[in-house]
Design a protein that fits this description.
The chain has eight helices and five strands, in the order H-H-H-E-E-H-E-H-H-H-H-E-E. It is an alpha+beta fold. The strands form two sheets. It has a three-stranded antiparallel beta sheet with strand order 3-5-4. Strands 1-2 form a two-stranded antiparallel sheet. Helix 6 packs antiparallel against helix 7. It is globular.
Amino acid sequence: KALYAYKKDIVHPHQIAEVASDIEINKLREPVGKQDQYIAAHGGVTCFTFESDGSVRVDPLQVSQETMYDLEDNLLLFFTGFSRRASSILAEQHARSRENDRSMIDNLHYVKELGLRSKLALERGKLGEFGEILQEHWNHKKKRSNSMSNPQIDEWYNLGLKNGALGGKLIGAGGGGFLMFYAE
């Protein structure tokens, strides 16, 4: 977006997301999806539908102002101190998906359903339910790879739950980065 702005070109966020996706997926050959590029380009609390033809539908969630304030107050984000390349975690998932590994495909479909349940919970202002879905998501995400977590991250996660968090998960591919909790 900065390069387009520098050239005084006005482009739609959808175009920025597609250019970024093309660079990362096709040119750099990273085993990633388009979700990060789309949320970075569009922002907000947004639902994306990734169609089989490669198109992406963008639907901002209908979340009340009160729910947004509660989310801002109750979401906690902590840097784990562990850095990793997303591609090292995602390569295994990508390979297993391409091989039609039934457990991987089922896991990814289940996580998609959790995303739809999260959308409904947020739109209904049911943030406790949203927190519980985060925990369910984390439990399924860890099944995708032995590299998804480590004993230190598991210890921090359990500490968060013991101290009032309703749920949480590592943000992104896993293996490090940021640990997010929902805690009232």
